[in-house]
Specification:
about 200 residues; alpha/beta; five-stranded mixed β-sheet; about 15% strand
């Protein structure tokens, strides 16, 4: 992470937490979080909340107001640089006077990519790669599709006992997992386009 300052990881982790709030609501767009930091303090936060709605950067800029000028923006995915359902986030960041943009990972979508180059051309300091592995896991299905993956992105969920069984000793229908596992499974299902069930 060349050029990273000690707090880069901390603020990017916060942006990743915010991005997760969009899970199940933004597909086929990616989950994205943004944190604006001014003088070491969070000035504004945002995340992509719903498909077709404002992106994370726009929400964070609105929350920060005038404190966005000269701030550092931590964004989990490279700011978009195209007109789609919304305007380019690069233009919003430039208009707000953000001085530095740190992104976790680049956007492989050819239509939206080029955001860091656009910002750098206007004098904004840009960096990428902070918490990149975490960001890639968080948006693995989006990144797979954006890179033109030939097959669907598949998630396998198994509930098995420690000895590999799919039912208890009585062989009667019963839960093998607890509330935490069930909540995690529902979160996975909320982000799936299709669910296949089998025994």
């Amino acid at each position: 992470m060349p050029g990273a300052i000690p707090d880069d990881v901390r603020f990017m982790r916060r942006a990743l937490e915010l991005a997760q709030r969009g899970a199940g609501r933004v597909w086929p767009n990616p989950k994205v979080g943004c944190v604006l930091v001014q003088d070491g303090e969070i000035a504004g936060e945002g995340w992509h909340q719903e498909y077709g709605g404002p992106h994370a950067e726009v929400h964070a800029l609105a929350a920060a107001g005038a404190r966005a000028r000269g701030a550092t923006a931590y964004v989990t995915l490279e700011p978009c640089n195209h007109h789609g359902k919304t305007g380019p986030c690069t233009e919003a960041l430039l208009a707000a006077g953000v001085a530095r943009v740190v992104c976790a990972t680049r956007d492989p979508n050819a239509a939206a990519a080029g955001g860091l180059e656009r910002l750098a051309a206007d004098g904004v300091r840009v960096e990428s790669g902070v918490c990149e592995a975490d960001a890639r896991v968080q948006n693995a299905p989006f990144l797979h599709v954006a890179r033109g993956g030939p097959l669907p992105f598949v998630t396998l969920k198994l509930a098995v006992s420690i000895d590999g069984a799919i039912a208890g000793p009585s062989r009667k229908r019963a839960w093998l997992t607890g509330p935490e596992s069930q909540a995690a499974v529902h979160a996975l299902r909320a982000e799936a386009d299709a669910v296949a069930v089998g025994l």
